[in-house]
Predict the 3D structure of the following.
Amino acid sequence: MARIPGEGLAKGLAVTMRHMLHKSETQQYPEVHPDLPARSRGVIALVEENCTVCMLCARECPDWCIYIDSHKETLPAPEGGRPRARNVLDRFAIDFSLCMYCGICIEVCPFDALFWSPEFEYAEYDIRDLLHEKDRLGEWAATVPPPPAHEVGAEPPKELSAGSRPAPARRTAPPAPVKGPAEGASAAQESAQDTAAQDTAAQDTVQEAVGKAPQDTARGPAGPAEPAKGAESRPRREPPRAMRDIRSIRPPGSLPKNAGSSQQKKDGPEGER
C-alpha cells in the first residue's frame, strides 16, 4: 500500500493536541509528598536492639560501605550459673555515597535488625556528610511501614498461633496412700511371703534342669560320645570362584616341580634296581 505523505507528522501532532487538551496533574513537592510503593527502597534503617554484631551484613556488602565496631561485656552470673559474655554495639554506620541499594545486607540479617524505609530526603551538600551513624539510622526505623496483611482465608502466622495455644497440662503422680502401723506390717509380711515363694520356684527350676541334663547327655560307660549334630548338618562353605580356579590348578601347599629333576629322581631308582 502506498503511504500518504505526511502521515507520521499528522499522528505526532494528534498526540500533542490530545495531551494539550487534558488537565495537567502536577504534584506540589515538597509541600505534597508522593505516594511511594510499599516496597520502595529509600534508605536503610537500623533497629539497634536486634543487632548482635554478627558482621554478616558487613561481610556480604559488595561495596564495603558498612562500618561496625563493638566490644565484649560480661554479664553477671545468675544463681547456679556462670557469667556470660556478649557483644555490645559501639558503632554502626553506612556510607550512602557508596551504597548501591542492593538490599543484600537486609536479606542476610538473621535477627531482623535492618529494614527498608521509604524516606529519601537525606541529600547533603557535601558527599562526606552521607556517612550516617546508628543514631540517624535508628530515627529512620520509626518510618518503616508495617508488613502487608495476609490474604483473605490465609492461615495466621505461626507466632500468633503458638502464642494463643493453651499450655499443656503437667502430669503429676498420684499421692501415695498413707498407711497406718497395722497396714504397714501386713504389707511387709505379704512382701516377705512373695519373696519366699519366688525363691522356692527358682530352686525347683534349677533341680529340674540338673535332673534332666544327665538323661539327655549321658551315654554308656564305654559308649563313645556322639558328635554334635549341628556340626554335621552345617553346610561346608565354598570358597569364591577365583579361589576355586586357583586350587584346581595348584593345590594348596604344593610348589611347582622342575620337570628335569623329577625325571632324574624317577629314572635313578629304576636304574639302580
